[in-house]
Structures are given as structure tokens and as C-alpha cells.
Design goal:
Shape: globular
Distance between the termini: 40 Å
Order of helices and strands: HEEEHEHEEEEEHEHE
Number of helices: 5
Helix content: 10-25%
CATH class of the largest domain: Alpha Beta
Number of domains: 2
Strand content: 35-45%
Structural class: alpha+beta
Largest sheet: 11 strands, mixed
Length: about 210
Amino acid sequence: MYDEVLTQWQRGWSASRGWTDYQQVDDVIVVRIGEPQRRIEYIATEMHAAAAAHLALTDCNPPGTSWLTIATGDPERVAGELVPLEFVRTEWLMSIALSDQASSPVPAPYKLEIITAPSIVDVHVYGYGELAATGRMSLLHTGAVADMIQTDPAHRRRGLARAVMTALTETAITHGATRAHLAASPEGRPLYESLGWTTVTPLLVARTATTSAP
């Protein structure tokens, strides 16, 4: 049901992070990340969760470095079924028609900078002599994926994340994007809901055990 949205999100998320080595294996998207703590990511719907878990448990990566993202309406139940994989957290795959997102200007005295590169938009917010908030959106034809929306703790609760999302959205629209997706953390989900984003499906995030079995 949400296979297409999951795939579109993965393509944009990978583009945002510079992860270009990915392929489909047995209905599982395999993203070779190569970072010390996250060597590989297996992305699948619940229907193919067992296949993703098998790939993670039989690859040659060090303990704790093979990750899974599973689209499922019941993350707690599926997490129990995937033992001995370790549950990390629940995220939410969200979507919006970009023209429907609420707008919010950057508050004074903060200043906003927009940097565009092929298929990537970066937004930086500066204030009081430092970088206060950032965000990125990758552009995929008429689609887009928001990623790495962050506000420095010293500058939170001032509307900066809303301003970042506004700038990203408006810029994406000028580049022909009409719909966007993102994976929201528990902390970020209320912000996106307040801007008009809706949940497509919860995402179970898990990984192989951080220590080898005795």
C-alpha cells in the first residue's frame, strides 16, 4: 500500500546523505552507507520484514552496524517478531502536498540563507553570531524529501524549524516539486503535524545486536 512512498522517501533520503550505493534484493532496499556505526540499511515493508532481518543477521558487518527500517502499522509487534534484532525507535513516514504546508517567516533578528545545488536545497538560519538552525531537502523530479531539520538547543522554541521548513518548501516548489516526504522522529513529529504533514505509516527502526552472542 505504501511501497511507492517508502521507495520515494528512500531515494530522497539517500540523495540527501550522499548514499549512492543501493539496490533492491528480494523486495528489500539495501543501502550501503559505509559509516562506522551504520554500515548498511535494509528498508522494507512489513510483508518483507523477515527477508530484511535475514539479510541483516547474515551479512558480514560488525555487531550493531546493520540497520533496518520497516514500514509497519504495529512497530511493537514486529519488533518482537524480529528478535534478536534490537529495537532502536519508532519514526513516522510523513507526506504533504507542498502547496498545503503552513508558512512561517524567520523571526527577527535571525537571518536565513538558502543554498541550492543540483537536486539539493540547504537552509541555514543565523542569529546572535552563530548557526542556529539548518535543514535540507532533496529534489526528485516533482517529489522532494526533507531531511536533517535541526535547531541548536540554545535557539529552540523560537519558530526557527518552522521557518526552515517554509524556506525549503517554497524553494522546492520553484523547482517544480509538488509533494514531499520525510521520516519524523518522536520529537519532530508534532512540528510537522502542525505544518500540515500527515502520517503515511509508522517506521520501525532496528539494528543487529551491539554485541556478539556468546
